[in-house]
Design a protein that fits this description.
Chain lengths: 414, 414
Amino acid sequence: MKINVSLEEAQELVLSMVNPVGETVVSLPAALGRVISRDLIAPFSEPSFDKSAFDGYAVRAGDTRSASSASPVVLQVIEEVSAGSVPVKKVVPGCAIRIMTGAPLPEGADAVVPFEDVEEALGSIVIRRPLAAGSGVIPTGNDVLEGEVIARRGRRVNALLIGVLASLGITRVPVYDQVRVAIINTGSELLDPSEKRQLGKIYVSNRYLLEARCREVGAEPVYLEGVPDEKGAIAGSLKKALEKADLVITTGGTSAGRYDVIKEALSIIGAQILFSRVAIKPGKSVIASHKDEKIILSLAGNPTAAMVTFDLVAVPAIKRMSGLEDPLLPVVTGILAGGFPSTSPRRRLLMARWKRQNGLGLIELAGKQGNVLKSSIDCNLLVDVPAGSPPLAAGQSVAAFVVGNLNDSLSEDE
Amino acid sequence: MKINVSLEEAQELVLSMVNPVGETVVSLPAALGRVISRDLIAPFSEPSFDKSAFDGYAVRAGDTRSASSASPVVLQVIEEVSAGSVPVKKVVPGCAIRIMTGAPLPEGADAVVPFEDVEEALGSIVIRRPLAAGSGVIPTGNDVLEGEVIARRGRRVNALLIGVLASLGITRVPVYDQVRVAIINTGSELLDPSEKRQLGKIYVSNRYLLEARCREVGAEPVYLEGVPDEKGAIAGSLKKALEKADLVITTGGTSAGRYDVIKEALSIIGAQILFSRVAIKPGKSVIASHKDEKIILSLAGNPTAAMVTFDLVAVPAIKRMSGLEDPLLPVVTGILAGGFPSTSPRRRLLMARWKRQNGLGLIELAGKQGNVLKSSIDCNLLVDVPAGSPPLAAGQSVAAFVVGNLNDSLSEDE
């Protein structure tokens, strides 16, 4: 058991113990947002035949070489092919076939002239400019080549990928299972928000916060009843959680006081502690342990601290267990829009928001830091302030972990 | 009816006809991702009492003024308050109360010294440094003040907001209804991806693409059977769609050929056309009409064109109908990572991907443009190239509409 590890060491210790949880096959619409578990290969080229890019006439480009306004070329229309039909005739010299968008190019033709560019009369068309071979034609394999890798294992499925898979007739998609995350809130001071207020008690925000955060990162929360600060009750809940979930999160009961019973509960169930405490503020009080090849992360009861350590330690684990290629949180650098007045004897994480300004990455700190949730509603970054840093000045360059959706920063005016 | 309108005019004409579709009340967990329909006000301050920031001892700061290592101050511990309990005694001069994280500060005390900083023996603690008044105390209202607006109407609910609402005992959330979007794919060449391949036919990717895109923007897709290129069949499907959905999308049948029957179908059901064609490439073939106070957007059959116009014209409408504050697509500016070889006689939209590099917003064009879906899988931007532009050079600054998730650009190395 290690004590007071660095954030990177904490992440590594946890990541070294987890693997993707399993895989399954889902229907195409159900694959949205899921992570692909096997490389997807194109079963055929797309388009699978040369086709017309628009409604027009399939011709031989050679026939139009001398066409001009002064000396137009006249071609005889010998057939019409609608989209979904197949041409019967060949385009021989002097002839054209009327063709609709997406219809297969007839044999002999190598270009399509759009309807708007020609006049048709008495079964013939008049062409007034030369066409290049291939113009107006979408060639076989233009989008996808047979055998090509369409999507690699470990990527998340978005709408565009679903469109591509549909075009290739792929209706069953191999994906990783969603990670089931059990959340246990400990603390005799906790009330459910549906209960009546009581002096000295608080509503359990961690349950709802972490359940929602799980959903935001593609995991499936499994809620277990909250338990009081009592080692036996916590141990019982942990046992249930290990049966029902792939990863167990507890909140509360991790700090130094005599009511801090998480360690005793972990000992009762025989969990091995990986580390206790991470050298960051907020969020130093974290205990990571494992039992039955599953990780138990015990976070502080304070919602801000719980959220920060959930994002920094639990989310990478969830990402790896979800099968995602790169489990670590992305880091962006940017210019601070405003300063931070305090020194940071310990490594500190500041809630912040990415802000766009003329293509530059500005980073705006939340108005309040520490023990506040409301100030963080619009935050999508955690600025990483190294231990020993002096106060931060506006205009200074900083690095930040991306923990939320950057698109949320786009709604305001530049 | 207007012909060949600008993109901005198209958006305005459609937006001027739509309103939020309705509102409802959902449970707190179900509010994730939904749009709030009424300002949410804090019913009480949070915290609602002064509380201890950690496990320690509540003291009077004045008692510790002279404390030093050489001359420590000794205080008598008169009570213990666990989280969730309420102190019975007052802290009088010379005394301290043992207190757990989150427990209410006892009367008379104005500071908390952490367990780690003192020794307790024989019912007394020894303090070796002075405390400032307020240190170790989280004051009432530190996070939220009673009566404060927690979230304004028109914002989307994220996990952090759910945490704040839970802490305030708000368990029922007023949200706008999700927009129901009917999707009708027309075209005799279309096969469902579950069907056997046939020469000259293609799998209907638009259905799956647009359904998934609807889900990505928080709308609820309503699928209607595909219909052949036949005005009566299309008209029948449109009627059903207007009954079931708030917004109707059709794909296919909008270009200039003789099989292009969307306009005839719109005329059969008595829809009024707002505009036909938008001056952009790809995606010029769009018809917007309205009937029964609902918008019908008829997009091209080509998936790339359908997707571009869905994002640029349908998404703003969906956003307004969803109740979001700002329906227009955000625009970012950035430096092109590579050039584009063609001139743009018409306004052109190029599929691209945001790329981070040293805090700069780099924009990387997709390898292929036009009639390709696969190249666009990783795209989250549409670069806006004004009509009359020469080829684009690497290093040039361009503006782009954000159509996808910017976080998707963060996984690669800088």
